[in-house]
Design goal:
elongated; about 375 residues; 10 helices; 2 domains; binds manganese (II) ion
Length: about 375
Amino acid sequence: MTNKFLGRTTALIELIPEEYDGALIMSQINGRYFTGFNCDNGYFIVTRNGCVYVTDSRYTEAAGRAIDWCKVMEYPAGKMKETFGGISQSMGLKNIMVEADRMTLSQYFMMEEMLRPAALSQTGGLDALIESLRVHKDSDEIACMKAAQNIAEQTLQHIFGMVREGVSEADLAFEFEFYARRLGAERLAFDSIVASGENGSMPHAVPGQRRIKNGDLITFDVGCVVDGYHSDMTRTVAYGDICEEQRRIYDIVLRAQQHAMDYLFAGGDDLAECDAAARDLITAEGYGDFFGHSTGHGVGLEIHEFPSVSFRGGKIPVNSVITVEPGIYLPGRYGVRIENMLYKTADGAVDLASLDRELLILG
Ligand SMILES: [Mn+2]
């Protein structure tokens, strides 16, 4: 069996420009991606002449077991500088790339001091190289995201059964977390959004004490995490008697989402065209001013990752996972958003969501 983490690390080394010996990866997310080990204090030094993973005594044993294809070292308390200085010298490091997007200035100065005499890169570049690898999901990653999505769907159906007059947004959000974790979610992908009635016009409303009442549209934006991988889904449902315009904007959003998804199913691979497929339909129906955000985003080890489905454009990478989530938000009144997560294949796309999208009227 080939080790996929060694494979990812090797792929990164091949992307690193010649003027650098290698890279220092110290963010938890990227460390996990390249080693499979989830640690909040790991320093993965990747070079053409070998790799070393450095951590402290809390994690040495577990790291040694998890990363058996690379040298694992412990820096003793108070001996960080000696340890990293020794590594830098023995590996002959001169110029190292760092994760400019993911480190603080203090961390930069600290590592510059620790790894002397090696220099750390002062411009970005490593982040984009890592992004270009992470964006292509393998079958294990897809399986995790599908599992997370399945838990979210089962849980949301359970929540739909709880919607009645007087129940608060906060109650529904809390029950979502409780139920999802009991079904095996390691955690939620983000704080659930439950936005009812006039709160629905705020795309990222925080669930509060507002209670469900007749005539509400209720937007649920929820996700779970399985083995580090996130799911993301939004459904808007109605409670009781809704008006003609509420039905109308629901129908427009659903058609806009379907239009963008059909673009992907048919093999479309441009981010701006995908965004426009949803946006132009909403604009043509007269609600363009009420759809302010981009149509979607990449999902994976993080809930929002490369690429962005927006006017900025660019190719949609094969094997990436992106969301399609148009919405219409009428300030002070109500809002609708519908979101599915899709897997982009070589000649089309696979919908990773299976929960119904027809308007569900509860109560
Ligand atoms: Mn989303």
